[in-house]
Amino acid sequence: MKRLLSTLQKWHMLHFQGPCNAVTQRQMPLLVNKILQRSKATALQDAQSIRSKYQTDPVIIARPTKAVVDEQIDIRVENLLPNQAVTLHSLQKTEYGHLWESFAHYVSSTDGTVQVMKDESLGGSYTGCEPMGFIWSMTPDPEDTKKRRLMKTDASIPDIVKVSVVDGHILERAAVKLILADTEVERWHMAPGVRKVKVRQNGIVGNLFLPPGPGPFPGIIDLLGATGAADLRAGPLASHGFATLQLAYISHAELPYPTGYFGLTNDYFEEAYNFLNSHPEVAKDRIGIVGLCFGQYFTIKMATEIPKINPRCLVGVSGGHFSMMKNETGFAHHCLIEYNAKKPFDTNIPVATKHFLLPILDKPDRILQVGKIRCPLLLIAGEDDQSFPAVEAAADIERKMKEAGNNHLLTKISYPGAGHIIEPPFFPLNKSSKIQIPTMKTKFYQLWGGEPKAHAYAQEDSWKRILEFLKQHLAVN
Amino acid sequence: MTRVLSPLLAWHASLSKQPFMAAAMQRIPVSLSWAAHDRRTQGPASQRTLTTSQVAPVIVARPTRALSDDKVDIIVENLQPNQPVTLYAMLMTEQKKLFESFAHYVSNKDGTVQVAEDESLGGSYTGCEPMGFIWSLTTAPETPSGLRVRKEDVTTPFIVHVSVFDGHVFERSPNKTALAVTEVERWFMAPGVKRVKVRQNGIVGTLFLPLGPGPFPGVMELWGGAGGLNEFRAALLASHGFATLVVAYTNHPDLPYPNYYIGVSDDYFQEAFHFLQNHHQIAKDRTGILGHCIGQYIALRMEIDMPNIRPRCIVGINGGHYWPVDGKTGYIFEIITKKLMNTQQYTEDNPLCMKPFMTHLLNKPSCHLDVGKIRCPILLFSSEDDQAFAAKETSLDIERKMKLAGNSHLLTRVTYPKTGHLIEPPFAPVTPVSFSPIPGIEDKVWLAWGGEKRSHAHAQDDLWQRTLSFLNQHLVLS
């Protein structure tokens, strides 16, 4: 919505409404200069008198109000006093009912506007010019004891973020005295037209996300980490034109294994690949596999150990080429269970588990044969990953592929300051959360790592690169 | 900036219409390799994929979900260079009626079509019309023609399927599959807007409250003689920050009067206006009235004849200061129905214009409202091609009377050429003619509303912007 009159015009109208309102064209520029030379204090006085005469209420405008999760949202606050200190407060209620919020300190321009896309935040949850910082800098309520990870289990329901402008610079909800304006923003995981199909056949457990249209679409098998399946990435991938099969392989109610236990064989993944490949809306033999963390292990495994699976490309995020389990099957967090049995963890402080897994790199029989990879591989790792040695694993993969002679297929990107959970852009950083580990009585407090700003940059950049990579290799004629 | 057809493109376009299209298409690979060469020497690879792989065409709409008065930017990429394509939009309304539109574009040498900048060469609209694919939606061949697009449930969006077909087509055919498809959602309620059903004190209406604690400026909205309760404009106004109460005064099952009979008295409108003013989230002295057609007459009557009602401003669209009812209550349009002999003679090509039936009232000052008594700013919109009502002449008469009375400084009058009677929120599909029930007659009749599609669509957009500015200026800023 356009603002009718600028502060300057209002000032003119205020002062020149009398009989002397015939201001000549020659005099106008002089007056303008005079106005510009005014000190800040008098400008504020004038503005206040204008404000009291016209009573303009502050307004916050978000465009678009409903967006897909990787779309940028433009936030603008108008009709403030000039140089007014305000806080942009975002609030989101998770699926579990917990509150995540962020505070950003802005000072309005002389026009009384704040443009989040261009202005710099002076403090709070983020500083500097960060157009989407009001989303990715959200942190959980300090009083929250459950410490659950911010996840998305049902992609068809949008995330509703309440964005409000509060007077003054504040850092907590209790300090909110005067809300000047507020609005709601919806973030959807599925673009309009994306269809979610539940897949429960041939033993496969998963969700298939199909883009709108007749197809054929390039296919993707999306594997998440050891904490189980969620609708996190498949919806946004489908919104970009990929038919994505979100495949559950661990910790799912409909898989016949206890939580945290991996018991499937290679047949399961072969079935999933065949299902996707033979789907009428999926382009045949144009399938890629994307894996996060533990999922990356299976991504590489599918490409190297299952001959019937021929992916066109592979993407691995924050994972490795070795299994965390004892054998082919077992508990995913086997290492942690062993250590906990010897010396129980203190579940009140977040634990970095990266070093527990490093010795595995010295055991060649536990490592997948990356030399057998025949398709392009993109590896993404966060250098501040505290839960998994992603950077070291990626370096080892590169070394082994150099020895085998196929390292021209490898693209390796590491992000300084990024943690373990690298998600689609603008998702708040999950720095640590409590997860359920089998045989542990209380929940294990896992440290994932990451520094908010660097992690947000990593999410944005890696998403772009992943989409480019997938489009380049899975292009349909 | 709009692209103008180059001779080369025209050559391609003309070829594609020939029966020997297959032969013509064989010549295209030559230009393809040129294009491939162009791509290879062009900009950073991060902006585009490598040329060695061909990518499927993709259609991207931004934003995918928007308010129905927001503009949508559509870009089609990865086509062949200079490829003739059809942008096809399809909407299935709640009443299960299909509406579609076709627009013929030719991609540029990059294989891209940018609907916001490129020109349509034919189809449902021509020229550079970024939102033409929505406002030119007309009934599909299998849907009975003469229907209007109506949103009954404003809590759900309109889902418009936008797809790209190869070649220039004028109709949907089962043999052709789309090159790419996307969906665009058009919402009427922004996130946070609340819809409240109002059935108290005899009022039949719906109240839409914006997000927040308030107090909000209030708007009372009144529709025309067709009656019923159309909520979509009120929902949009609330999405822009105005608490809006849309009130039904005729033709509603909850009103205890027969169809097309206006039986409500002045008290009814007073109740409604006071309900709006006294609402705890609405600023008492910042309420205005917006009226379309007969609703405009009621708005003026509220300001002039009812001393308890002091609106802050009035917006009137294609209405008058007289109405086709004898007295305060009665059957609407009895004037028309009495004189209407035979409804069968009116067809789609020769529809009934209601305008001449009421022009005699324009020359009867005794049944006009005394517009000299208006005390608040008033914005009047009228269409020059209004076939249902003499809107332009009436607004001229209102201006003349207000000049004589000395309060014409309160009046802003805007006329739109080539625009018809039904001016609705922007980008709503335009209907110059519809097959509708006429108040008082059992059968449906082909009615003419007037207007040429493109001018009407632009008028809708312009009217909406002016209305929002006007309401903002008088209900918020002052």
Radius of gyration computed on alpha carbons of chain A = 27 Å
**Sequence stretches where pLDDT stays below 50 over 5 or more residues of chain A:** 1-5, 12-55
Shape of chain B: globular
End-to-end CA span of chain B: 38 Å
- First CA to last CA of chain A: what distance? 43 Å
Q: Got a strand count of chain B?
A: 21
Q: In terms of per-residue confidence, which ranges of chain B show pLDDT below 50 for 5 or more consecutive residues? A: 1-53
**Strand arrangement in the largest pleated sheet of chain A:** 10-11-13-12-15-16-18-19
Quick rundown:
Chain A is α/β, with parallel strands linked by helices and 477 residues long.
Question: How would you describe the overall organization of this protein?
Answer:
The complex is a heterodimer of chains A (477) and B (478). Chain A is of the alpha/beta class and 477 residues long. In chain A, 25% of the residues lie in helices and 24% in strands. In chain A, strand 12, helix 5 and strand 13 form a beta-alpha-beta unit. Chain B is 25% helix and 24% strand. Chain B has eleven helices and 21 strands. At the A-B interface, strand 2, strand 9 and helix 11 of A face strand 2, strand 8, strand 9 and helix 11 of B.
Task: Tag the structure with descriptive keywords.
heterodimer; A: 477 residues; alpha/beta; six-stranded mixed β-sheet; 21 strands; disordered N terminus; B: 478 residues; 11 helices; globular
Topology summary:
The complex is a heterodimer of chains A (477) and B (478).
Chain A: H1 7-15, H2 27-37, H3 40-54, E1 59-63, E2 66-68, E3 74-78, E4 85-93, E5 99-107, E6 114-115, H4 133-136, E7 139-140, E8 159-167, E9 179-188, E10 195-199, E11 206-210, E12 217-223, H5 234-238, E13 243-247, E14 261-262, H6 266-277, E15 282-292, H7 294-305, E16 313-317, E17 330-331, H8 334-342, H9 354-357, E18 377-382, H10 390-404, E19 410-415, E20 432-435, E21 444-447, H11 452-474
Parallel strand pairs in A: 2-9, 12-13, 12-15, 15-16, 16-18, 18-19
Antiparallel strand pairs in A: 1-3, 3-6, 4-5, 4-8, 5-7, 8-9, 10-11, 11-13, 14-17, 20-21
Chain B: H1 7-16, H2 21-26, H3 28-41, E1 58-62, E2 65-67, E3 73-77, E4 84-92, E5 98-106, E6 113-114, H4 132-135, E7 138-139, E8 158-166, E9 180-187, E10 194-198, E11 205-209, E12 216-222, H5 232-239, E13 243-247, E14 261-262, H6 266-278, E15 282-292, H7 294-305, E16 314-317, E17 330-331, H8 334-339, H9 355-362, E18 378-383, H10 391-405, E19 411-416, E20 433-437, E21 444-448, H11 453-477
Parallel strand pairs in B: 2-9, 12-13, 12-15, 15-16, 16-18, 18-19
Antiparallel strand pairs in B: 1-3, 3-6, 4-5, 4-8, 5-7, 8-9, 10-11, 11-13, 14-17, 20-21
